[in-house]
Fold this sequence. Notes:
This protein is an all-alpha fold. It has 21 helices and two strands.
Amino acid sequence: MNNLASSEQIFATWIVVILYMLVILFFVIRGALKVKSMSDYAIGSISFSPLAVGLALAASMTSAATFIINPGFIALNGLSGVLSFGIVMPLAIFCSLILLTKKFRKSGSHVKALTMAQWIGKMYQSQNYAIFFAFISLLLVTFIVLICVGLTQVLASTLNVEPVIVLLSVIVFVFGYMMFGGANSMVYTNAIQATLMLVVAVILLFSGMEYFQNGMGGFVKKLESIGPHYASLTNPDSFLFRDFFEIIFCQAVIGIAIVCQPHIITKSLLLKDEKDVNRYLIVGILVLLVFFQVVFVGLFARFHFPDLTVNGMPIPMDGIVSAYVVSEFSVYVTILVVLGLISAGLSTLEGLIQSLSATLTADLFNPLFGKIYDPVKRDKQEILVNKLMIVFLAIISFVLSYQQLKSPNLSVGIFAQNGVYAYFSSAFVPVLFGMFLKDVRLKTVFTSSIVAFLVHFTVYYGRFLPYMKETVNNPAIASTAALIVSLIVGLSMHFYLKPSQNHV
């Protein structure tokens, strides 16, 4: 492990990380005292302000991927990556958020759903469909792995500790406290994390001001000096940003569909009053605007490490931001930035653990084994099952994260995209149709979800399209194909097949 941190940085970071852990535990204990049922755990028993929920949305949407992993892709590939991750995808996400949030909230409140799988099951009156979504929600473990690896890279660099020890500590701590607080504590910790992330995003973005001393022209010339396509809007040498189809079309499709993840779209259910939705969206989108621009740090890191090496050793792509932070900033600024990067990871990690464990409990375990509950003690027993689900997720996450630390396929980002994109590709049609079309048959959406799932993995692993012939392939291509084919199948079945009863 290339350690760039000074002994002063290491000592100070230890102190601050311990204090940060104590603050989180304070809010967890405070929230846990109010958890009396699975409903309290999943959507909270407290009335939250739109400001707090908007900050929580921004924090949970921009994870370690935005702050730690994605800038690594930009460091390798240049301006084409900024166009893709920093402009096209955010614009698509904002449009999708505005369009889908109000509709989902109205229908989510109407069907009294605690989870995404439950919403889908109730919307289409099918427990089998809910169980199907509970199963494929396990794909979101890949995103948990990305965050665990990102956090491990940052903490291992700044604390000078072996990555495997950091990984184990992160998983034990975060999964441990998420067994208790749920939504009640998560909204508050997310709001604090988002505020810290906002400060750190500004620090990171201003860290590259020196490169603009000769204006935009001077900045572009500096980009051009890195490589032949580094300053171009497309990069034929890349496997993610080769042309505008990948950079604009695929990222726009992904950006629209990405909102259909449970830890994102269900945030609006935390608002108790309909009139708060607009303020929640304004706060969330304004903060997200800043967060998404952190990808520019990838360019600054490349200027700082032109050949992407430290002491003659290559920097792993997932460790580029960590190396930049430790070597660029003074001791105390480094500590603040590290806290922001930790916050970026924890905010989404908490949301994923909370939504995924609630889904596995409410939509997988309860329908299959719910008869074992004692009617009198059901709430307590359900909360215990939820804790066991979190332990199960922690074990899987550790094993997969360890594997990604040791031998990633270029980046853990590819591993995570493959799983997450497959999930929301399957969820997109049922969510879209449930909100905007009437009399949608179960057969239509169930078929569309299965088609999306199969197309995504067939295109990715079968290497069916011309784009998929590289050593490392772009999951966005497979997901775009899955979304388009499943949407065509869904619309065709909805408008051209004769109506029939909702059953599978």
